[in-house]
C-alpha cells in the first residue's frame, strides 16, 4: 500500500500535479507513519539491551533504503519520460540572439536543458543556446540548427521576459546574460538539468529542477527558494534575507549572510556558514546525513539539536547546557552560548542517522560583504 502511494506521488511530480516541495512533504509523512509503527514494536525489547543494536541498525538501514529507493525511482522515471537519452545525438549547434529588455521579471521554463544566468554590462539581453537533437535518424548541422531555433521560444511582454524550451527531443544548455541592474523576480525551472545563477540583484528568486544540481554565487536578494529532487544545492558568498533550500537527494552547502534560512535534505549532508554577526535564524534538517553549522563569534546563540542515531557536538564560547537528553534511540541538546550578548542567533537542527556539529567560524562585520 505504501509503495503504491510512493509511486502515485512520483507520478504526480512527473505530470506536474505536485511540486517538489509538496512531494517531499507527502513522502516524509509516509515515513513518519512507518516510524511510529516501528517505534511501537521496539518497546518489546526494553529488557534486552543487545537487541537494541539490532533494532537501531535495522531502523537506520530501513530508513536510508526507503529514502534512496523512492528518489532513485523518481530519477529513473524522469529519464524514461520520453527524454530519449539513449537515442543517437545529432550535431552540436549554437543559436545566439540579442534583444533589448528593460523589464524587471525573468521567467525561464525548460524541459531537458541546463540553465546559466549571469549579468552583462551591456544594455541588451544575450541568449545563447547550445544543443543537439536526440533523434534516431541522422541530421545535418543546418537541420539541427533549424530544430533548435524552432524549439526556443522567447518573448518580452510588458515587464516580463519569458524563455521556453520544452522540446523533449532537444538536449541543450541555455546561457542567458541580462543587463546588470536590480530585478523584481527570477523564476527559473527545468525538468532535467542544472541551474547556475551568478552575481545578480533581485527582490525574489525561485530556482527549481527535478534532476540536477543548483549553484548560486554572489546573489543579493530578499527571498530565495531553491528545490531539486536529485542534486546538490550550493549557495556561496550571497546575502539573502530569507532562504529556503530543499533537495531529496544531495548535499546543501551555504555560505554568506542569511537572516532566516531553512535547509532540508532527505539524503545528504548540510553545511551552513554564517559570515556576519547579526540577528539570524537557521533551521537545518536531514533524514540520512550529517549537519555542520559554523557561526560567528560575538553573538548570543540559542540552539536545539536532535538526532536519533548520531552524535551531537557543540563547541561555542561560554556555552550553558539547558537540556541534555540521552536515550537509546534519541539524543537532544538545548543550549545557550554567550548569554546576554547582542545580536542573537537561533539554530535548530535535526537528523535521523547523522551527526550534528555547531562551531565558530569566520567573524566579519555586516559591512564586509
Please describe what this structure looks like.
With 369 residues, the protein is an alpha/beta fold. It has 3 domains: 2-80, no CATH class; 83-210, no CATH class; 213-369, no CATH class. It has 4 helices and 21 strands. The protein has helices spanning 2-14, 20-42, 49-80, 141-151; strands at 93-100, 105-110, 113-120, 124-133, 152-157, 160-165, 170-179, 182-192, 195-211, 214-228, 233-249, 252-267, 270-274, 280-286, 291-295, 300-307, 312-315, 319-327, 330-337, 344-351, 356-360. It has a 21-stranded mixed sheet that branches. Helix 1 (2-14) packs antiparallel against helix 2, helix 1 (2-14) runs parallel beside helix 3 and helix 2 (20-42) packs antiparallel against helix 3 (49-80). The termini are far apart. Residues 13-40 form a coiled coil. InterPro entries: Toastrack_DUF4097.
For the structure shown, list the relevant keywords:
4 helices, disordered C terminus, 3 domains, coiled coil, 369 residues, alpha/beta, 21-stranded mixed β-sheet, Toastrack_DUF4097, DUF4097 family beta strand repeat-containing protein, 21% helix
Instruction: Report the β-strand fraction as a percent range.
Output: over 45%
- The overall strand count is 21
Q: Average pLDDT value?
A: 83
Biggest sheet character: 21 strands, mixed
SS field, number of helical segments: 4
Helical fraction equals 10-25%
Specify Rg, calculated over alpha carbons.
Answer: 23 Å
Number of domains: 3
What is the H/E string?
HHHEEEEHEEEEEEEEEEEEEEEEE
Helix-and-strand structural type: alpha/beta
Poorly predicted ranges: 35-61, 82-86, 364-369
Shape: globular
Q: How far is the first residue's CA from the last residue's CA? A: 52 Å
Amino acid at each position: 500500500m505504501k509503495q503504491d502511494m510512493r509511486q502515485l506521488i512520483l507520478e504526480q511530480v512527473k505530470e506536474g500535479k505536485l511540486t517538489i516541495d509538496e512531494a517531499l512533504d507527502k513522502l516524509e509523512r509516509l515515513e513518519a507513519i512507518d516510524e511510529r509503527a516501528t517505534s511501537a514494536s521496539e518497546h518489546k525489547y526494553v529488557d534486552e539491551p543487545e537487541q537494541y543494536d539490532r533494532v537501531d541498525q535495522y531502523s537506520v538501514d530501513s530508513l536510508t533504503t526507503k529514502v534512496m529507493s523512492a528518489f532513485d525511482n523518481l530519477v529513473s522515471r524522469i529519464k524514461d519520460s520520453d527524454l530519449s537519452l539513449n537515442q543517437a545525438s545529432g550535431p552540436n549547434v549554437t543559436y545566439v540572439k540579442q534583444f533589448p529588455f528593460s523589464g524587471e521579471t525573468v521567467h525561464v521554463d525548460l524541459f531537458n536543458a541546463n540553465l546559466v544566468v549571469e549579468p552583462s554590462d551591456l544594455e541588451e539581453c544575450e541568449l545563447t543556446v547550445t544543443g543537439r537533437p536526440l533523434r534516431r535518424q541522422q541530421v545535418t548541422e543546418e537541420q539541427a540548427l533549424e530544430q533548435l531555433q524552432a524549439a526556443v521560444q522567447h518573448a518580452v511582454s510588458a515587464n516580463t521576459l519569458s524563455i521556453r524550451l520544452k522540446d523533449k527531443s532537444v538536449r541543450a544548455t541555455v546561457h542567458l546574460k541580462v543587463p546588470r541592474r536590480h530585478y523584481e523576480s527570477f523564476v527559473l525551472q527545468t525538468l532535467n538539468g542544472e541551474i547556475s545563477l551568478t552575481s545578480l540583484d533581485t527582490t525574489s528568486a525561485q530556482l527549481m529542477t527535478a534532476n540536477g544540481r543548483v549553484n548560486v554565487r554572489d546573489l543579493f536578494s530578499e527571498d530565495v527558494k531553491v528545490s531539486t529532487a536529485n542534486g546538490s544545492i550550493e549557495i556561496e558568498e550571497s546575502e539573502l534575507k530569507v532562504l529556503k533550500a530543499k533537495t531529496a537527494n544531495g548535499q546543501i552547502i551555504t555560505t554568506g549572510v542569511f537572516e532566516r534560512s531553512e535547509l532540508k535534505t532527505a539524503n545528504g549532508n548540510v553545511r551552513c556558514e554564517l559570515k556576519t554577526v547579526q540577528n539570524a535564524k537557521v533551521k537545518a534538517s536531514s533524514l540520512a546525513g550529517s549537519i555542520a553549522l559554523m557561526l560567528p563569534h560575538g553573538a548570543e546563540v540559542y540552539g536545539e539539536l536532535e538526532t536519533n542515531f548520531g552524535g551531537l557536538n557543540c563547541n561555542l564560547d561560554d556555552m550553558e547546557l539547558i537540556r541534555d537528553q540521552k536515550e537509546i534511540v534519541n539524543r537532544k541538546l538545548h543550549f545557550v552560548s554567550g548569554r546576554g550578548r547582542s545580536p542573537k542567533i537561533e539554530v535548530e537542527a535535526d537528523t535521523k542517522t547523522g551527526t550534528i556539529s555547531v562551531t565558530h567560524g569566520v567573524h566579519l562585520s555586516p559591512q564586509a560583504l
